Each structure stands twice: as C-alpha cells, then as structure tokens.
Input
Amino acid sequence: MSELQRTPLRDFHAAHGARLVDFAGWEMPVQYRSILEEHKAVRRTAGLFDVSHMGEVDVQGPAAGRFLNHLVTNDVAKLFPGRVLYSPMCQPDGGVVDDLLVYMRGAEDYFLCINAGNIAKDLAWIRAQAAAFDVKITDRSADYALLAVQGPKAAEIVQSLTGAKLGLVKYYHFSEATVAGVHCLASRTGYTGEDGFELYHAAADAPALAEALLAAGLPHGLELAGLGARDSLRLEAGYPLYGHEITAEISPLTAGLGWTVKLDKGADFVGRAALLAEKTQGGARRVVFFRTGDRRIVRADTPVLDAAGAPVGRVLSGTLSPILNEAIGSALVPAAAAAAPLAVDIRGTKLPLQVVKPPFVPLKKV
Amino acid sequence: MSTIPAELRYAKSHEWVRAEGDGTVTIGITDYAQNSLGDITYVQAAKVGAVLKAGDTFGVVESVKAASDLYAPVAGTVLAVNAALDAAPETVNRDPYGDGWMLRLKLADPGSVASLLDAAAYGQLLG
Output
C-alpha cells in the first residue's frame, strides 16, 4: 500500500481526537467527535475544516483569461480582480473532468482550486488544452494549505483575527487579508451552504492559523469538523460532488448545473458542441434529489425502481440529513422517469422517493 | 480504549450479553462496536416472539458510514426490543451497555451464556 499524503495539519487533527481515514490518497479527518454533531454545529454556529488536500493551480500569462474561457463551461470573461467563479471543466463529449473555482487576481493572473483526487489528471488535462495558448500553468498544491470556516458565526470569528474589512468581501469574492498574523487569500466561498470563508495560506502557517481560528471560534460554539460533516452538509445544500453527481459520464446539464454552462458566452469551449446538443435535444437522464421520510440511509449505488419495481436508475449520494432527521440523496434516472413515482428497496422495505429541489434545508442568503 | 464491563459476556461479532439470572438475557453491541461504527442512525431489531438460533441475524445497525448485521450470540425467543432506539438510535453511541440495549431474549438453553467470551477474552480479541 502506498503512503498516504498528509496535510500540514495531520498532527493537529490527531491531537484533537480526529479519526483519520484514507480520502483520495490523503490521510484526512473524517470526524472528531461525531459527524452528526459537527454537521449541526456548522448549521447552528460554525465549523473549522482542513481542506488542504484540495489542489491549487496558477494560470498566468497574456492569454490566461481567454484560455480559461476555453477550458471551462462558465463565463470567465465575467470575472474581475477579486471575483470567484464556480465552473465545471468538461471533456469534448460533455462529461466532466472536474469542477473547480476560478479566482481572478489580475488581468493575466488567475488561480484555480481543484479536487484533491483529480490533481494529477486535471494538470495533465489543463496543460494539454493550453498547448495553443500563451499561458503558464503552475501546480501550487504543495505550497498552499486551506482552512474553511463555515457557519452563521464564521465571518465574525475570522473578522476577530484580522484588520481587513471582511464585510466588504461579498459572496464569491475574495481579498488578501492577514488573519492571526498569517497572510491569506480570504475567499467568501464554501461547500456547506452556509456563510463563511476559505483561507488559502502558506502550508507552514497552517498549524498556527488553525489553532488561532479554533481559539477564536470556541467562545462562539465553533467545532472542528471533518470530511464526514463536509459531505452531509454539501448534500443537504444540494451541491454536487465530483465522482457522484458529476462524472466523466454525467454532464453538468444532466446534473442540473445548467446555470454554469454558458453556451452563448461568445467563446468556444471544450464540450460546447456536445452540451449544446444535449440542451437542444433534451438529455436522456437526469440527476434528481430525494428525501424518504425514513431514517434508513439510501446509499450510493442502490438501484432506483419505478412503480412496477423495475430498476431504472441508481443512487449517486445518500446520507442522513441531521437537520431533517431523514434520509436524503441524489439519483441518476431517465429523464422520462424523473416525474414518475420512484422507490428504493432497503433490506426488503420499499421506500418511495420524494423528489425535491435542493437545498433540503433553508439556507440563509449571504 | 474501549470499555469492557467485567460482568458481561461477549460474542466475537461484538455483541454483549447480560444474564439476568431468570433464564433471560439482555443483548446490545459493545463500546468497541459503537465506536467503530460511528454515529448510529438506525437500529432495526427482530420482532417480539421471534425465535432465534445462535448466529442468526436479529437485526441491522446503521451508521452514517455503513449498515451492519446484528447476530444473536445465543439461541432464544425475543421478549422485548428497545423501542426507544427508533427515535434516538444515537443512544447506542452514548450508552452502549445501558440505555442502548437492543434485545431481551428468553434463553433456549440457560447454560449457553457460559460458552461466550468473558471480558478478558473479549479484550484479548480486540488486542
């Protein structure tokens, strides 16, 4: 077995009682105290997540903006310095290579945040697409640590450690800020559906910043939160996870991410023709989100059945919503079946799926 | 470290058994088991009146992570199940040897409990 990669906070996690597991080749905290309690703490007050396993890539040069608009489906031309954009990055057939955040620092200076499990694949893909563009692609993944503070108290907690006016940093914007003496790129983004910041900083500074955030957050009820809570929070918010709702075989349109596919942005992009065809003809399949009204978790790969009990699709993600106290999830089904009665069989009990439009819980607008 | 009460008996499949001294036993899962499973979200146990052989599955315990079968360490007839776990399955995490009990059995063979692991042997199993 190959060695697991470690973030600069591995010992911090161990010292705080984390249960460490292999996540995409990284030794990461899946939980500290309880996934359910950490989840509720993020909805109620705040949680601190180490997501330093995520990849970071600099895209720089005269053609950086034009290249990125070719690479991703959303409209990079809409960015201005200090603005963040979420976008899928697609294959020519419309399947997804990865989903990522694009940060615009300057006219020729962009920064990407990509999924940990996809770093090598993404870099190869990005470099291959960049051949005809005057851009420089630099893997910065090892240089950066990333801490996410998420929850209704998150902004107040981070603000208590910086002189920067974080109130001026709106949702999906970012700013340079010195937080607890650590130089950070403070991004008002997250993967929980709550307000909060993601703080990119030098890897060597991570233990000091984590301790400072924890100390500042404790009086507000902040808890350390692991990847278990991160997953249930994102599913409750209705956010896709690469490898589940979006994959090489599931396009962003199929996944319900049509708002991130700007077919008319005035630039051709990888996957445009296929996505245009899917939009014009209507996709054969759809990702739907469901709840069951029952506590039994409907796990990924569970067959989805039609009214006659015949398998028509499969579950992509499933967990217990700690807020609703019932099973929630997503499933891939034929488009024609999405509005018809669907069910799953859990150990001999047939549970009807109630298809809903996420988020599953009301989320506060930032 | 897991708690392993000295007065209980154990199965290799991580259930505990408490002899009540009247031919009945109470059964649950061990502290080690609840800790390995993580947040328990659902407990499904056999129906009252069900007749179980030793090694039969008597239900399922689900956590955020996974669903695991529960095995009857001894043979008997189900006298009661812990209905409080329907609404509060996390009780098994909090108090696995107390309020988190799962099943009461009338033993088919009152001597069968003696064949189970004692606390020392179960502790050795956990290493």
Notes: Residues 2 and 31 of chain B are 6 Å apart (CA to CA). Chain B has a mean pLDDT of 96.
